[in-house]
Write a structure and sequence with these properties.
The complex is a heterodimer of chains A (about 375) and B (about 425).
Chain A lengths: L21 E7 L4 E6 L5 E6 L3 E6 L5 E5 L5 E6 L5 E6 L3 E6 L9 E4 L5 E6 L5 E6 L4 E5 L5 E5 L6 E6 L5 E6 L4 E5 L4 E6 L4 E4 L4 E4 L3 E4 L5 E12 L4 E10 L4 E6 L7 E9 L3 E8 L4 E7 H4 L7 H12 L7 E2 L3 E4 L9 E6 L5 E6 L3 E6 L7
Chain B lengths: L15 H5 L19 H9 L3 E7 L23 E3 L6 E3 L3 H4 L5 E7 L6 H10 L10 H9 L9 E5 L18 E4 L15 H19 L5 H18 L9 H7 L3 H15 L3 E6 L8 H26 L5 E6 L3 E2 L11 E2 L3 E6 L8 E2 L1 E2 L6 E3 L4 H11 L7 E4 L2 E4 L14
Parallel strand pairs in B: 1-7, 1-8, 4-12, 5-6, 5-7
Antiparallel strand pairs in B: 2-3, 4-11, 8-11, 9-10, 13-14, 15-16
Helix pairs in contact in B: 4-11, 9-10
The chains are: A mainly beta (about 375), B alpha/beta (about 425).
Chain lengths: ~375, ~425
């Protein structure tokens, strides 16, 4: 196991240069990680793992602390805007409340949020509400202060994989296994829009569907929804499908672009972040087991593409194939996170509040911190 | 031993017209029944006590950790919980909530070691009770030969599947005992008699064909003729029961589910009720090298309710007392979880469930270690299970097949049945 590594926290003065992204620290867990988050004050980085716990690393000291309370894997977490509370959703169906900087972390509240797995949790922009989704096909909304359920949104016929609040605080967005994106009005608890995407696939050989969001983010101005996942399923049981990040135009309720890796490699897109300086960052696990961080320019990604009538007629099939997809946009920069002799494919990424650091949760149990600046010697 | 005439024509296309065309020279003589038994005593016993078998084959290798042998909270346990069942102390994976309520009708074997991680080898071992390539018959064909009545109104061994075109299930028993594969619940092609042919004309054609067959086979090897004749007979049986393929009851579909597997299970119940001796239903899609957990949510979510409904119906009707139910794969899946959230092939420590036909219920046979990586108690393989199935069905698995005077052991003589399961 690596020695704990402290990360310098005063980075805001360094010029951002995503093309110079480099690793500055790596924390190690014994088991593969499932997701990661910086807390809003950038004091800690948290990760879920293929065990029953969440782990917290102190960025100033590198000290690791275990948060024990779930009875299954945690694959989604979020924070109150002030950074005081951490909320975790587990495959045990439970939603837990934790104090972010608790010296001896313990679960402060638990609700059984879903029958079956609770796949996702997100905090409303004002911090008053939590939204979760789970394998009972429900979206549920909870009061963050007391854990009371205040709304239940039914309509997904297959498992919703992710849910998020629109920055206006009045709408929710969710995406299910079949790639369907639903927009919900919070006041009426009704679905107000449905957008089909190519982010699903039916494997004829195995007679099963694969798809859905592995991450979902909205741009801070609320104009774009981004969901990370897969398309073009060839052999889903072997993981042979294309990673994709779908960008949706909020106003027009249409799919705007498909962000894809440069080399059209097969795999899964597990993470997505909007960078305030005009970038979209994606974390990808290649089928081969290596990891990839890709950078797209937001202005390119948000520019509509004219799709010819011929292409429209060819429909979904073409949109799924990376080399034929008229909506495809390749990154302007990519970073392979391969290290020798390890399978380090990415299971999640996050952007620190300083907007200079990225965290990547990896299969080899490493939680890697990358800095998007010129390398500073010493 | 007579030569193996290869796979059954009905495995490919059920086209009655194709069967009739150009076969006037082929003869009858399918000898479905008990004539192959070397022990008359056993044969007499079987005649007086008709039994049958329901096979649910989870193709690709269902994960034992996500089904019959969950280990939540352990190193390789995965994200799912275990749940209590109708058997005190027995817990199975949370993905099988309906089946959990029927576990008092089943037993679980948690200690299978086939010593192979190969799909085909594992499947053959589980079906034939013998390791490696061989001409031994599948359990379904053995049961078809020794248990299907000669006057059975339906084919003795029906396999409902959408894949597996080339399975040679009968081996040296001859294709008379091979499976008849149904493409889901889709009726075979040309199930209706040709409109221009009256029932009387059709019957006369059959009689004429039969007469020619007898002449032809009196001077020639009869295996090929038997094969074609069995096909004709099966086609005729299906033509007489084309009602089986009519629209399924909405009330029953409410109970079984409207997806393919629900419909297949409902069809399986109908076939068993109507006289088929072995019905096999294949549920595809368990070879989860990637996204094992999401796929098991999907696949077991589809499996659970129809299977438990079928099991409950068999119990309620009293048929479970004479119907052996086996739920099996060709192997399990690796305890270790790979980088694609997948589990790979694992034939050395995995599980299945079985019940009915006098099999001890509520039992757990064998155990794996805490990590699920090894069998630590009562290791068994396909040979032990094969003996167990047959003895539960009242077939003496230590007896011999009589193949044209040559005696071939029905079960592997080197192993015994799992006695704890045989009440």
């Amino acid at each position: 196991m690596n020695e704990p590594t402290a990360v310098p926290t005063d980075l805001a003065s360094l010029p951002l240069d995503v093309t110079k992204t480099h690793k500055v620290a790596s924390y190690q867990h014994q088991l593969p990680l499932t997701c990661c988050r910086f807390d809003p004050l950038s004091r800690f980085v948290f990760a879920g793992a293929e065990d029953l716990n969440v782990y917290r690393w102190d960025l100033s000291s590198g000290r690791k602390m275990m948060l024990s309370g779930h009875n299954s894997w945690v694959r989604s977490m979020d924070f109150s805007p002030d950074g005081n509370w951490l909320y975790t959703a587990g495959w045990d169906g439970e939603l837990h409340w934790w104090l972010t900087d608790d010296p001896l972390p313990r679960s402060r509240r638990m609700v059984r949020a879903h029958v079956g797995s609770a796949r996702w949790v997100r905090v409303s922009p004002d911090g008053s509400l939590l939204a979760t989704c789970g394998n009972d096909n429900m979206i549920r909304v909870w009061r963050a202060d007391v854990g009371e359920m205040i709304a239940e949104l039914a309509g997904h016929e297959r498992n919703p994989y992710a849910v998020n609040f629109h920055p206006d605080g009045k709408h929710l967005v969710s995406q299910d296994l079949m790639g369907n994106v639903f927009i919900w009005d919070l006041d009426s608890a009704q679905r107000v829009a449905s957008i089909a995407t190519v982010m699903t696939g039916y494997d004829n050989k195995f007679a099963a569907d694969m798809g859905g969001a592995r991450d979902m983010r909205l741009s801070p101005d609320g104009r774009l929804v981004a969901t990370a996942g897969i398309t073009n399923v060839v052999n889903s049981f072997a993981g042979q499908q294309d990673p994709i990040i779908g960008l949706i135009d909020w106003e027009k309720r249409t799919v705007l672009r498909h962000l894809r890796p440069e080399d059209n490699s097969t795999g899964v897109a597990w993470g997505i972040r909007f960078h305030p300086d005009g970038y979209i960052i994606g974390g990808i696990a290649k089928q081969s087991g290596s990891g990839l961080i890709c950078f797209w320019k937001l202005d390119e990604a948000s520019s509509p593409v004219k799709v010819s009538k011929k292409e429209e007629k060819e429909g979904d099939l073409k949109l799924r194939q990376a080399d034929k997809d008229p909506l495809a946009l390749k990154p302007f920069h990519s970073l392979n996170v391969d290290e020798p002799k390890v399978l380090d494919c990415i299971r999640g990424i996050d952007l620190a509040a300083d907007n200079r650091r990225l965290a990547a949760a990896c299969f080899d149990g490493s939680l890697r911190i990358y800095q998007m600046t010129e390398e500073v010697s010493g | 031993m007579k030569r193996n005439t290869g796979c059954h024509p009905l495995d490919h296309v059920h086209s009655r017209r194709n069967f009739l065309a150009g076969t006037a020279a082929l003869g009858a003589g399918a000898m479905a029944g008990l004539d192959g038994f070397s022990s008359q005593l056993v044969a007499d016993t079987l005649k007086s006590d008709q039994k049958r078998i329901l096979q649910i084959y989870m193709q690709g290798g269902v994960s034992q950790l996500e089904s019959w042998d969950p280990k939540p909270g352990t190193l390789y346990g995965g994200p799912f919980q275990s749940i209590p069942t109708s058997v005190p102390g027995l817990r199975i994976c949370e993905l099988l909530p309906y089946t959990a309520q029927k576990m008092h009708l089943l037993s679980v074997v948690r200690s299978i070691n086939l010593n192979t991680d190969d799909h085909h080898q594992g499947h053959m071992f589980m079906e034939k009770g013998r390791r490696g390539e061989s001409a031994y018959p599948y359990i379904g064909s053995v049961v078809n030969k020794y248990l299907a009545p000669t006057d059975s109104p339906l084919p003795g061994f029906v396999h409902i599947s959408t894949r597996g075109l080339t399975d040679n299930t009968a081996g040296f028993l001859g294709s008379s005992y091979a499976q008849m594969r149904l493409e889901g619940i889709v009726p075979p092609d040309n199930l209706d008699r040709q409109q221009e042919l009256s029932e009387q004309q059709f019957s006369r054609r059959r009689d004429f064909r039969s007469q020619l067959n007898q002449q032809f086979t009196s001077r020639r090897p009869k295996a090929l003729v038997d094969s074609y004749d069995a096909t004709f007979n099966q086609a005729a049986q299906l033509m007489a029961r084309k009602d089986l393929f009519e629209k399924q009851s909405e009330d029953q579909l409410d109970r079984y589910g409207r997806h393919d597997f629900g419909r297949y299970c409902l069809m399986a119940r109908t076939l068993l009720e109507e006289g088929s001796t072995c019905v096999k239903v294949t549920h595809h899609g368990y070879d989860t090298h990637a996204e094992n957990f999401n796929f098991h949510v999907e696949q077991l979510g589809e499996f659970d309710q129809p299977f438990s409904t079928l099991l409950g119906d068999l119990e309620e009707s009293g048929m479970l007392e004479s119907t052996l139910v086996m739920v099996y794969s060709e192997f399990g899946r690796t305890p270790k979880i790979n980088h694609r959230y997948g589990r790979d092939h694992w034939g050395s420590a995995w599980s299945m469930a079985l019940g009915g036909c006098g099999v001890q219920t509520g039992a757990v046979i064998g155990a794996t270690n805490d990590k699920g990586t090894e069998v630590v108690d009562h290791e068994v393989h396909g040979g032990h299970l094969f003996h167990t199935y047959l003895q539960a069905l009242g077939i003496d698995s230590t007896a011999n097949h009589d193949i044209d005077g040559r005696e071939i052991p029905i079960g592997d003589p080197a192993v015994e049945p799992i006695k704890e399961l045989l009440a």
